[in-house]
């Protein structure tokens, strides 16, 4: 009986790991929502600042400032509250890696 329980537990653990497997394109897909204002892949053609290649820490700080209300915005303070900290980390990492 104990062996059956152990096997079942391992099977469930394996399924949970699969369920939490991250989409390899998740960061890119989340960052794509920024394209309307900041350009494809974060390369702005004018108007808004480019995000591509900016240091991750700088991007994180700006988003934190928008989220807290320390940095005034017309829309960013609303957008940033729609993301989790993990999603913001993925987005800023992705933009920082763009050249």
Helix content: 55-70%
Helix/strand-derived class?
A: mainly alpha
Shape: globular
Mean pLDDT: 87
Oligomer: single chain
The helix tally amounts to: 6
Distance between the termini: 58 Å
**Share in β-strands:** under 5%
Rg over alpha carbons? 19 Å
Strands, count: 0
Q: Summary?
A:
This protein has 99 residues and is an all-alpha fold. Helices cover 61% and strands 0% of the residues. The protein contains six helices and no strands.
Structure description:
- The longest helix has 18 residues, at 2-19.
- α2 (26-32) crosses α6 (85-97) and α4 packs antiparallel against α6 (85-97).
- It contains 6 helices and no strands.
- The chain starts with a helix and ends with a helix.
- The chain is an all-alpha fold and 99 residues long.
- It is globular, with a radius of gyration of 19 Å.
Which terms would index this structure?
single chain; 99 residues; mainly alpha
